[in-house]
Amino acid sequence: MYLVGWITLIAFPLPAFLVLHYLEGWSLIDFFAFGDLKSVALGYGIEMGIIYAFLATIILAAPIFQEVPLKMDDLIRSMNLNYLDALFLSICAGIGEELLFRVGVQFYLGPFITSILFVAVHGYLNPFNWRMSLYGFVVLPLSFILGYGYEYFGLWFSITVHFAYDATLFFLFIWMDKSQLNDA
Length: 184
Description:
Structural class: mainly alpha
Number of domains: 1
Strand content: under 5%
């Protein structure tokens, strides 16, 4: 599990950096956009990620989603994550995936196409499973927030939205899983 986190954190951004470095002349400083690291954007990002995670949780409680085969549920349950593990994975995904998609892919494809691609790569836009695609349409607005938020607030806004969304969902999943075990 930690290996997957480290791969996401290090290996995902590497192709984006190499392309932008060699084709566009970007430095590591440009790539990580430390100039965008502002507390207001970070605060908005954390707030947006948490709010969207709770909204998605409410929507996903609808009966139509009960039959959606969310393989991530089984994967998360099999990893027996604790809150520290969830925090680590959320940090890795927030940083690694946003550097790849927002800084790298979005530089060439723009926020709209990149946002759709981001959801599709996660397997949530599936033409052979309409229920899974329905879930994709629940997270697609979040992907647009990440893409257009990157354009408006900068990289660190998108990273914190992604981190806060993942961390909130992980924490809720762990808490609900433990609550169900205690009720049994």
